Amino acid sequence: MPRRFRHRCALAGTAVVGTLWMAPAVQALEWELVEPQHATTTNSTPDSAPASGPIHSDGLAWELVIPGDEISPEVVAQEVEEAEALRNQALASVPEPTAWITGGLYQISRGEEGLPAISQRVPSGYGSRFLGVQMGLSLESCNVTGNHVCGTESFEQEFKDYAKGAIDLNVGLGDPTRWLGIDLGYNFTSLATTRPGQDNAGTEFGEGQGINLALSRNLGPDWGLKVGAINLIELDDTQKDTGRSAYAVLSGRIDLGGPPNSNTNDLYITAGIANGLFRPLNTIVKDQGRACDALRRRKGTDVLTPQQISNCNADGLNYGSPSPVAAVAWMINPQLSLMAEWWGRNLTLAASIKPIPGVNWVITPGVTNLVTNSDWDPDVPGYTERVRLQLTTSLAF
Q: In angstroms, what is the C-alpha Rg of the chain?
């Protein structure tokens, strides 16, 4: 407890000299300690307050107000409304975070929202975000090969005997929006051993393994550039029948109207060059012939063994001269896109569907070989006489 001091003043006798002089004489001062409860309090009512300045009591500051200057409730409400309007205006002036587009295998994302695919066969220019994973399955109703002409048998029989499928896994190891995207992929192209209707044993499940690699870089929130190779490394002999392909593509988004970040009514375009399986069929056949002719010259013989012919055909299937590739996709909303693409050798029309909002699962059915070109030419081994169906589906994390 704090202590206070008080003093007692003893006054000496007062001598009155005349009528004008009065002088008290201080005889002595005496000090003693006094406990707080005995201290004399000072009246601090507003009547004893100074003429100006606030009066503090219990944490509140009171101040004298001239009559007529009081703040009415209407004024307070108006000031609150004006402050709220200024706050809303300030919030509206702050731009939304920019949504960058990333991709990978079969589908893309814009910001945090997964979207349907913008192409089916043609690679997009958008790379995967860091540790982004996509798993996909692709199927085609009849594989164009040198020993069968698609369309010469019933659809059901050809699907049983000559359908082709592949399973792909893709993971992002870089960051295409900040420095460089790195997509590392693994695929195998054999999904069955002996197909229905076949007398001989087919390839084992899981054969036809290959490694894909792509490098990508975003050129802004809406544009991306990618270069890559499919089956860059063939892990077994079966994969040699698939061929190696390289590509360089540029993809971009054009807003056709609506809220900027709504992912509705957007146009996506992709254009570039590719080789390998993206070449016209007659070009592939010619390159295979040149590879076998070169092997004959090296061997000094006009007769090649079946294995040598298989090897030079595989060499002619790899890479080769580039062909133009392109895709155009209309993103109607975050769950549906419609697309057309030229994959180097023919035209494809497809629709990509994201059936469950919030789940990055995409299904893309399409039809290809819509243009009568080298794929329809009887002079080219492995041509087709009908359009072919194809389906891709993928799941992204």
A: 43
If DSSP codes are grouped into helix, strand and coil, which group holds residue 232? strand
- The strand pairing partners of 331, in sequence order, are 266, 337
DSSP character for 142?
S
Quick: pLDDT tens for 64-120: 666 666 677 777 788 888 888 888 776 666 556 789 999 988 899 999 899 999 999
Residue 80: DSSP 8-state? H
Q: How many CB atoms lie within 10 A of CB 198?
A: 12
- CA distances (Å), origin 166, targets 108, 233, 390, 395: 20, 16, 12, 15
Rounded distance, CA 290 to CA 187, Å? 29
Report the distance separating Cα 161 and Cα 154, nearest Å. 11
Handedness of CA 83, 88, 94, 97 (dihedral sign): positive
Residues 6+ apart with CB under 8 A from 210: 186, 187, 188, 189, 230, 231, 232, 233, 234, 235, 239, 242
CA distances from 346 to 122, 327, 372, 384 (A): 11, 12, 8, 12
Q: Please, which residues have CB within 8 angstroms of residue 139's CB and are 6 or more apart in sequence?
A: 163, 164, 165, 390, 391, 392
Contact 127, 182 (CB under 8 A): yes
Tell me how far apart the alpha carbons of residues 94 and 15 are, in angstroms, rounded to a whole number.
85
Residue 92: its H or E element:
helix 73-93
Report how far residue 142's alpha carbon sits from residue 158's, in angstroms, rounded to the nearest whole number. 6
Strand ranges for 141-258 from DSSP E? 164-172, 181-188, 209-218, 223-234, 245-255
The verdict on pTM exceeding 0.85 is no
Name residue 242's amino acid: T
